[in-house]
Amino acid sequence: MDTQEKKVVHIAMFSGGAGSAFVANHMVQTYGKENCILFFTNTLWEDEDNYRFMEEVFNHIALEITERLDGRTPEEVFYDERFLGNARLAKCSEELKVRQTILFLEDELRNQKNLEPILYFGIGPHESHRADNLKEFYEHFPLDPIETRFPLIELFREDLDAKGIIRDEWGIQLPRMYNIVEQLAEEENDENAKLALKYGIKGFSHANCAGRCVRGGFQHYALLYAIWPERYREQEEMEERFRASFKKDVSILKKNGGSYTIKEFREVMELEGFEKFLFKADADIPCVCSFS
Fold this sequence. Notes:
Layout: E1 7-13, H1 18-31, E2 36-41, H2 48-61, E3 65-68, H3 74-81, H4 91-112, E4 115-120, H5 128-140, E5 147-149, H6 151-154, H7 162-169, H8 180-187, H9 191-198, H10 218-227, H11 229-246, E6 253-255, E7 258-260, H12 262-272
Parallel strand pairs: 1-2, 1-4, 2-3, 4-5
Antiparallel strand pairs: 6-7
């Protein structure tokens, strides 16, 4: 493909995270909003505060969000694929995020508008291995390679405090999932939240799927159980429905190489306490959702 004939368009891959918000702002300031797109793929499982954050970010940047969605929830994808997502393989990410992104890049931008995309991700220096994975993916998966850029790694100092800049200089509160523990402990005097905060846990490591991310491991689900038991129960019930529907011994979590259901994990936490699992390293592989 001769990209010389195509006008370049700069695309910030935006899922409501602080890193991608900072990168999107840098991208627009560098290339002008007329040459930029703020791109979001909606899983329909997002926490409601993510939408508030995204709206305030696009108002600050003065660039509206371009949204694409498959129309299915992750659970509906699991049923259609007859496969329950887990840390090793998440069809929800492939269908709701990756596929929608590729369709947008190849069909809408390259084919219909004769534009050549360059993608920007909000990945920091401590996640450089993820940047390598994304770079390799976009070099080989599309019909022709797509350039990827990682400004937080390539252009800025490692000690850059993107979250602090967004909060203190832009005047935008971060998505509550980053500090939900702190918020519940201080505003609602929640005992579980106060206990987690005592151990230095302020919130989730990412804001994907309102805490119901199937890529999460023991640590992630222990925190979900502690502060949002109703969402934990939703995930538990979804897993049980799937197991019953397909009569398969499958689960989101794994233990000793085999199935370990959300229900079984809850029963253990009810006996032993959730806090002992807050520091159990998750052997998960973050999905493409958290790359942006």
